Amino acid sequence: MADYRAMWEDLGMDLDTHDQLCAVLPDAFGDTYLTQGNRPDNMAFYDFVVSEIHGVRPAELIELQKAGGKVFGTFCVFVPDEVVIACGGAVTGLCGGSQFWVPEGEKVLPSGICPLIKASLGAHFGKTCPYFSVADIYVGETTCDGKKKAYEILGADKETYVMDVPQMKREKDIVAWADEIAAFARKVEEVTGNELTPENLAAAIRTVNEKRRALARVFEARKANPAPISGKDTLLMTQIAFFDDPVRCAEMANKLADELEERVARGEGAAPAGTKRILVTGTPLAIPNWKLHHIIETSSAVVVCEEMCTGTRYFENLVDEGADTLEGQFRALSERYMKNNCACFTPNPGRIADVVRMAKEYQVDGVIDANLKFCTLYDVEKPALADALAEEGIPCLGLETDYADNDAEQLRTRIGAFVEMLGA
């Protein structure tokens, strides 16, 4: 990694503690990723990004700020990036995916809150993540009770704007979300000092749609048997998409998709033909949470799809590009984002239908429904999802975990038995 210490110091980061994180990440990444065989050549870009994860992109964001731009830190796929991009701002994901940040988060939160929330607040208050430090404003959303209360704590320390996500999907809820996007647009104009126009919003919608199309091409290639790329590599690509410049993200994902399509044509796989194919669903896997995929893919299986926010929900469904007024564009944005089948909605049959559909499209042998501890929303949906999959003859394994490694062997035992059962 290049020397970014002066930049981190200017950001007010705790350099001594941050050094501890930087010391363990290379080994963790190497053991998880670089030990894989037959990786696509274009994964080299994503390997480089991880090697400079707290350097290259934060430095770009700082340059944007020097030129008058603003950085919006977000925690959820419901926040419409298009509005920020249209006003000359940049968006960066902020969810924490490491046990490293959890203890600091537990200083301001109860221990019985999900590790993603604790890690996110730990990264902020511990001053060990440059993305939190560089953001001019945080943007939250009301997708779970734990996050809603966490945003109150964050907001007392740094400006935090919260979007009110409807809890149902009726017509009036789609209208309400369009109104909420319009209110967010006014906040973005205030922060950036730039006017939102139908023209610049239309351009931003096209940019983000191109990013979605590129990510979708990579996932489409995974439907082939043998799978041309590992689940770990695809997860990494998706995780980095939350941080990266959207135009570059689309460019690099398209290059990766080109290579994968060539692999498919040659019948070349990241895992041998006949390897058991797994779909993972449940709570999101924020970077650098690679534990579950690593255990699955070192247990004689390959992950071929993720029905989660760090998966298909991030890119499925495009925004209609036909509207030419802000009101029409806000409606188009609302319709697209309200198609995300988050467990916060009631009722939520769409997620179950999505998992069943994808299990068939990706030719999976089994589904692993993984829940972060204390995430009651996804935990409650487990029985209904398992029943729906059973009706289709698709085996399902329900798991609960967190960011710590002390359950790794237990997970390996259960996943190994599940994969063995698939081959019986």
Chain-averaged pLDDT: 96
What is the chain-wise order of helices and strands? HHHHEHEHHHEHEHHHHEHEHHHEHEH
State the shape.
globular
> Roughly how much helix do the residues carry, as a percent range?
40-55%
Share in β-strands: 5-15%
- Strand line-up across the major sheet: 2-1-3-4
Describe the fold and architecture:
Helices cover 54% and strands 10% of the residues. With 424 residues, the protein is α/β, with parallel strands linked by helices. The chain has one domain (5-268, 275-422). The strands form two sheets. Strands 2-1-3-4 form a four-stranded parallel beta sheet, sandwiched between helices. The radius of gyration is 21 Å and the shape is globular.
Brief synopsis:
The chain is of the alpha/beta class. The protein has helices spanning 5-10, 15-34, 43-51, 56-66, 81-86, 102-105, 115-126, 130-134, 145-155, 171-192, 198-221, 231-241, 246-266, 291-297, 312-315, 326-337, 349-361, 376-391, 408-422; strands at residues 71-74, 90-93, 137-141, 160-163, 276-282, 301-307, 366-372, 396-401.
